[in-house]
Amino acid sequence: MTQYLEFEKPLAEIEGKAEELRAMARANDEMDVTTEAKALDAKAASMLDELYKNLTPWRKCQVARHAERPHCKDYIEALFQEYTPLAGDRNFADDLAVMGGLARFNDQPVMVIGHEKGNDTKSRIERNFGMARPEGYRKAVRLMELAGKFNLPVITLVDTPGAYPGKGAEERGQSEAIARSTEKCLQIGVPLISVIIGEGGSGGAVAFATANRVAMLEHAVYSVITPEGCASILWKDSEKMREAAEAMRLTADDLFKLGVTDRIIPEPKGGAHRNAAQAIASVGEAIAAMLKELDGKNAAALVADRRQKYLDIGGKGLAA
């Protein structure tokens, strides 16, 4: 069953009625509901178009967080071949919120790293809802160093509400680990490509997304803090998250205009969760195109390209 978001409730009613009619027809062979069901389907399709035509920033946040949206694990299983996971930071532990390893993408050897939120209660708890601890970022640094050593492109898949802010994480140097991961992104002399597949939250996302090319799915979000957190700080009221989302310019369109991201990947009608296979295929096409753009550049050119990209951020939007 599809999980409907709050703003999709009218759509849920129509699609629910269509399914009820079909269930009645399945129970009674003599009942023909084809015409009525098709009329409801057409009405639902029209409503879906209308709902997603101009999503507000807050609604985009809701879509980006949808529980059925494809996650890092889904992308790796569908797009990469011969994936060999690599675990641990060689210092403290293995952080299951970060997954990564060697793989092939279109027969090209690569290193893939990403945040994994999990897809049910058990896996979400194991993965800490995609909120990495210091050992997760130190694992990412280790994998990026390995990729640099063997001249392998690095592909990162970002989907996190932010780095884990717990006491243990702070004691083990959370801020330093995030900074080291961001620094490593800027240093490695291989192509580095990042895709924001859901939430790109704060330094926890930047630590993977300081890349030569950054793409965002159409309904993904990328910001320094969640709208709820921003509202709590500015207005002392987390219920003002809608106003915060409007002000934060966290959507793919806003960030493309500012030069923070380089490409917007279209999603299926109704969001990636309604047609995961199509969304994953679109991400695969974007990764292939971005790898081609960087093909043939030497290490010095890649590092310089990355550095200049971040020096230029904001100028494009400010000039407009």
UniProtKB/TrEMBL annotation:
<feature type="domain" description="CoA carboxyltransferase C-terminal">
    <location>
        <begin position="39"/>
        <end position="293"/>
    </location>
</feature>
<keyword id="KW-0547">Nucleotide-binding</keyword>
<protein>
    <recommendedName>
        <fullName>Acetyl-coenzyme A carboxylase carboxyl transferase subunit alpha</fullName>
        <ecNumber>2.1.3.15</ecNumber>
    </recommendedName>
</protein>
<comment type="subunit">
    <text>Acetyl-CoA carboxylase is a heterohexamer composed of biotin carboxyl carrier protein (AccB), biotin carboxylase (AccC) and two subunits each of ACCase subunit alpha (AccA) and ACCase subunit beta (AccD).</text>
</comment>
<dbReference type="GO" id="GO:2001295">
    <property type="term" value="P:malonyl-CoA biosynthetic process"/>
</dbReference>
<dbReference type="InterPro" id="IPR029045">
    <property type="entry name" value="ClpP/crotonase-like_dom_sf"/>
</dbReference>
<keyword id="KW-0444">Lipid biosynthesis</keyword>
<dbReference type="GO" id="GO:0009317">
    <property type="term" value="C:acetyl-CoA carboxylase complex"/>
</dbReference>
<dbReference type="GO" id="GO:0003989">
    <property type="term" value="F:acetyl-CoA carboxylase activity"/>
</dbReference>
<keyword id="KW-0808">Transferase</keyword>
<dbReference type="GO" id="GO:0005524">
    <property type="term" value="F:ATP binding"/>
</dbReference>
<dbReference type="InterPro" id="IPR011763">
    <property type="entry name" value="COA_CT_C"/>
</dbReference>
<keyword id="KW-0963">Cytoplasm</keyword>
<comment type="function">
    <text>Component of the acetyl coenzyme A carboxylase (ACC) complex. First, biotin carboxylase catalyzes the carboxylation of biotin on its carrier protein (BCCP) and then the CO(2) group is transferred by the carboxyltransferase to acetyl-CoA to form malonyl-CoA.</text>
</comment>
<dbReference type="GO" id="GO:0006633">
    <property type="term" value="P:fatty acid biosynthetic process"/>
</dbReference>
<dbReference type="InterPro" id="IPR001095">
    <property type="entry name" value="Acetyl_CoA_COase_a_su"/>
</dbReference>
<keyword id="KW-0443">Lipid metabolism</keyword>
<comment type="pathway">
    <text>Lipid metabolism; malonyl-CoA biosynthesis; malonyl-CoA from acetyl-CoA: step 1/1.</text>
</comment>
<keyword id="KW-0276">Fatty acid metabolism</keyword>
<comment type="similarity">
    <text>Belongs to the AccA family.</text>
</comment>
<keyword id="KW-0067">ATP-binding</keyword>
<keyword id="KW-0275">Fatty acid biosynthesis</keyword>
<dbReference type="GO" id="GO:0016743">
    <property type="term" value="F:carboxyl- or carbamoyltransferase activity"/>
</dbReference>
<dbReference type="Pfam" id="PF03255">
    <property type="entry name" value="ACCA"/>
</dbReference>
